[in-house]
Amino acid sequence: MESSNIRNIICTFFEKNASKNTQLLFRKWFRLDEYPAEKEEYMEELWQNSPSVISAQTLEDFSKIKACLSDQIPAKPVYSLFQRIITYAAVIALIVASSVYLTYQFAVPAQLEYAQLSVSYGESKKITLSDGSVVAVNAGSTLIYPKSFSADTRTVFLTGEANFSVAKNPHKPFIVKTKYLDVRALGTKFNVQSYPNADYTKTRLVEGSVKVDIETGKIRSYILKPNNQLTYSHKSNNVSIADVDAAKLAAWEDGYLIFQGVTFNEIVNTLERKYNVVINCDGKKLSKQSFYVKFNPDESLEEVMNVLCMLINKSSYKIEGSTVYFYTK
Known about the structure:
This protein is α+β, with helices and mostly antiparallel strands and 329 residues long. Among the domains are: 104-250, Jelly Rolls (Sandwich), CATH 2.60.120; 255-329, 3-Layer(bab) Sandwich (Phage tail protein beta-alpha-beta fold), CATH 3.55.50. It has helices at 3-15, 20-31, 36-48, 56-68, 80-85, 92-97, 246-249, 264-275, 301-311, and strands spanning 114-119, 125-128, 134-137, 141-146, 154-165, 174-177, 181-185, 189-194, 200-207, 210-214, 220-224, 228-233, 239-243, 257-262, 278-280, 291-295, 315-320, 323-328. The strands form three sheets. Strands 1, 2, 3, 4, 5, 6, 7, 8, 9, 10, 11, 12 and 13 form a 13-stranded mixed β-sheet that branches. A three-stranded mixed β-sheet has the order 15-18-17, with helices on one face. A hairpin with a 5-residue loop joins strand 8 and strand 9.
C-alpha cells in the first residue's frame, strides 16, 4: 500500500461520521502490524493540525486516568500504537471513539496507588491481588487495581474479560467496575465480559452470589445465583438473565473455548483475540443463527476454521499471514 493511501484512510476516517461497521473495520486494519511507522506519522500529523478543544475538565479527567496507570508495560501491548499517541491531548476525543480505555470516566480515589495489567491478543494472564483474590485476565483486556486495598471497598476497573476468584472479606465488598455495570461480591467466583467494541456486557456467576448494578440511566440492581448469566444490551438498554454452565464458559482460562447459543460475530471476535488475527467475513449473513461449539486448548487456527466450515454450509476460508478470509455463499 502506498504511503499516501494510508494517510487518506486515516484522515477520511476521522473527518467523517463513520458507521459502526466502518469503525470496526478501521480498528481491525489499524491493529495490523503492517506500516506502523506510517500510521503513527499520520496520526501525529492529524493531531498537529487539529484545533485545541481542551477544557479544564478534560485535563482533570485525563489526569485521573493517568494516575491509575503504573509503569507496567506488556511485552506486546494490544494497542501499542495508540498508547504512544495517547499523549496527544487534542486527539483524545477521537481515541475515545475508537474504544480505548478512556471511554471510562471513573471517580478514582486519589489516596490509592494503582497498577495496570494489559494483556495482548493471543495471551491470557493470571494475577493475585493484595487481598488474596485471584484474577485471570483474557486476551485484549486491561485490569486496573489498587496495589493495596486500603479503602472501604476492594474496587477494580475492567475493560475486556476476566475471571474472578474473590477472597472472602465480609467487611470489604469486592467491586468490578465496567463502563455499563458494577459487579459487587464478598467472596465468590464469577466472570465479567465487557469489551469496548461489543454490543453487550455480560457477567456469569460460578459460585456464591453477586449483585449487579446497571449504571446507565436509572440504576437497576440484580442478584445472581450460581449459573446465572446477566446480559446487558448497550443498544436497547435491556437486561436478560439466563441459565448457563458458568464454569464451562469460564474455561478459556485453561485454553478451552466454549460457546453456548452465541452469534457468529461473537465467535469471530473471540477467535481474533485468542489467535491474534483479523478475520474478514460477512457476519450479517449469519446474524440470525446461534452456535454451540467447543474448541480444545491444543487446536490450531486451521483446525478451528475447519470446524466452522463444517458447521456452516458452503463456506470456506483462506489464511494470509495474520489475516483470515472467511467466505459464505
